[in-house]
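>> received
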Amino acid sequence: LIEICKKIDTHFNLKHKEKPPKEWFNAINNIFGFDINPIAVLTTKANLILYFKSREKYIEDISINVYLCNSIDPIEFASYADIELGNYYAFCVDLLEEEKELRIPGDALSQNNIENFQILIDSLYRVWEVFDNFKDTWDASMSAVIPNENNIFLNQEEPIAKSTMNFFNELYILKEQDKDHIWLYLLNNLVGIHLLLLKKKMDLIITNPPWLTYKDADLRLQENMKKITGQLNIKPGAKNITNIEEAVVFLFKIPDLYLIKNGKGRVAFVMPRSLLVSSQNEKARRFDHFYNIELFEFNDLIFNIECCCFFANYNKVKPKLDDVFKKYPIKCQYFDSETLELLEDSLLEPYVYFQPNRKAMYSVKKLIRSEKKLKLLPFTLSDYYNEFIQGADLLPKSLLYCEVVNSIEHGKISIIEPWISPQAKGVWKKKYFNKVRVETENLFKATLSRELYPFYIIPYSIFLPLDA
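>> returned
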């Protein structure tokens, strides 16, 4: 965000402490940032305030729109109805010993009024700790709001204005009871996100999304990743569910939520390189809704995992079956990872497209350079591809995991039978080494990775099945 602010300053070529033009404020105030980490949000806000120190005379005209938010699953207000208030949104306040529901008039968060409602919150935020009573606080905040005939909250005769004032009065009472902690901050956060979802869509989204995979995520995130990939038709097959990548979920969900849908909106994402080559992303590589796609790749690691940069326009139009063929080949620029010097240009395309059935959308195999595709043989998938769910792993075992059934001859001989994992795919037709006598001295202890716990190991008996 700091770099974007620098770009804007460079564009306007402002001198030190010179008053910026109206267009500068419009540009700065239309920068938004999200992060799920509260420390990152506070640090970013602090850095932006420090950056704008030379504009301190005009700081009150600058909006720092950095919000605490799970971007792909933003919390929204719950809507209800009441006989006296009509439609309202519930703002629930957790007071430890109880939960209090404060009611925001439904029209306050409508498309016509939400921006003015956020202006009102911002104005209250500035004087919330200045006065010792609500009337003075309210009057000071209202006088600071620039008069606007479209601002319904400035007309105290309007029912919505009265209901809104009562809502903030209840919030102020919590402050007087020393129960006001971060409620105004959370309200501003929720309203800012609601504004973006409802009305104020972005022209450009730049992000480095989380690179977690499904198997590393908590249960709630796992369910969310499955649900979103299913909705967006990029969910991999059963064998690859545990490899769903959160970064790919972000790539498709974030523009769907926040970007303008007229085809002019653009994204710039830093992505794991698996987007281009891994089997779990075969559906994602159709790049539905994306066009004018460009890629950056690098000759060495920039992060601990190989990455690429993805640039594209976005248009929310229902994809057609053959749209995928218009996406490729994709222009890719290859950079030096340290100097960022351009090394070469290339074109990338899949070595094959395929359909699980004739009516299904195409899936896209890994991307390779166009000149390499001509050297490949064959250009089609095996006829057996759709007949298999997963290949077999045929590995000889040097150790036989077993269970000791009994001991005889004073413990010198043990009677064993094979231990079969509960994860085995099916019932064994024949158990080898079933109730076999072996020398106890040839039994040892070992463990499996899934049985390693903090400060504890679950041991298994193993036998070395060697012929004499």
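>> Residues 286 and 324 are 5 Å apart (CA to CA).
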